[in-house]
Recover the amino acids of this structure.
């Protein structure tokens, strides 16, 4: 999905969400990969998040990988996903059933 205009709400994708240089997203984005070249205000949940040189994120990022290019801006908090812990917790929950 490519957003190069204004959007308010929730975006959910199985693959990639790309916010273009003219893109302004206010809300939450959940995808496999999120690339921000414009402005995002809200929360991001993805395996990989890339904030490009013209990108600006204000909010919370939850990801396994976070890349911020030179001149990219990130204001907020970041939580790192840990796949190993998630798998162990899932197995222990199954054994209790």
């Amino acid at each position: 999905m490519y957003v190069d205009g204004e959007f308010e709400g929730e975006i959910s994708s199985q693959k990639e969400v790309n916010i273009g240089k003219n893109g302004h997203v206010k809300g939450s984005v959940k995808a496999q990969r999120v690339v921000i070249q414009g402005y995002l205000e809200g929360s991001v949940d993805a395996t990989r998040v890339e904030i490009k040189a013209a990108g600006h994120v204000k909010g919370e990022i939850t990801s396994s990988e976070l890349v911020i290019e030179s001149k990219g801006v990130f204001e907020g908090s970041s939580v790192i996903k840990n796949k190993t812990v998630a798998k162990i917790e899932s197995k222990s929950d199954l054994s209790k059933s």
In short: The beta strands are 2-3, 6-12, 16-19, 24-36, 39-51, 56-68, 73-80. Residues 84 and 90 are 10 Å apart (CA to CA).
